[in-house]
Amino acid sequence: MATITTWFTLGLLGELLGTALLAYGYRLVPEATRKRYLLLVAIPGIAIFAYLLLVLGIGAIDGGGHTVYVVRYVDWLLTTPINVLYLGLLANANREAIGKLVGLQALTIVFGFAGAVASGALAYALFALGAAAFAGVVYLLYYDVADAAVASLSDVEASLYRTLRNFVVVLWSVYPVVWLLGAAGVGLMDVETASLVIVYLDVVTKVGFGIIALNAWLTIDSVTTADGSSVAAD
Ligand code: RET
């Protein structure tokens, strides 16, 4: 029978393959966007370590009657701010907007973790704070940062911004639902099912985000190379 370790092993393989694929793409994207592209490789790259620890059975603690996977939160604390940082940089948003975006996303994860180890009403209060911080992230991505994208980017690049932004908002919104249904919340979803869903989402959100960007840069590069104009720099 498949156990939780099976899901973690699949997650590890997914993140390994994804990182290798995205690393290969580094030499294919336009030179001016390469530095920023490294962020996309780092996102699944960091998760390799998190999944390695999970497979080895390291990084889980008891959160008052249920298991809390600390490494998972550490992974998210590092990678989700990097992910929104990439969106902010892509949109040429100002420092203030990028700072808020990264800070609020980090707070989302910190509050979610605190809620997972707390119990009773406090757990839900902390969850609500995390949800409020995440609402701030979504707001910025749809308004301030989106406005910056429209004002500074070509149509194809602004369209890439919107695709990546929608991908993030839709898929990331499943995480708080799993938190609520899982052991940290009402407990309708057992730990194994929640882990399966999260492993699947982790690989799709991290690797999928990078592949969409890679694919878009390859297209943008071939189009602009063909007509002789250049792509916006870093
Ligand atoms: C928590 C609980 C508190 C409220 C909210 C949450 C959102 C978590 C998110 C996680 C995204 C993780 C990703 C991982 C990729 O590997 C912390 C569950 C809103 C958005 C993208």
TrEMBL record:
GO cellular component, one term: membrane
Membrane topology: Multi-pass membrane protein
Keywords: Chromophore, Membrane, Photoreceptor protein, Receptor, Retinal protein, Sensory transduction, Transmembrane, Transmembrane helix
Subcellular location: Membrane
Major site of localization recorded for this protein: membrane
A GO BP annotation: phototransduction
Gene Ontology molecular function: any one: monoatomic ion channel activity
Membrane-spanning residues: 6-25, 37-61, 73-91, 98-118, 124-143, 164-188, 194-218
Pfam family, one: Bac_rhodopsin
Family: Belongs to the archaeal/bacterial/fungal opsin family.
Stated name of the protein: Bacteriorhodopsin
The species this protein was found in: Haloarcula salinisoli
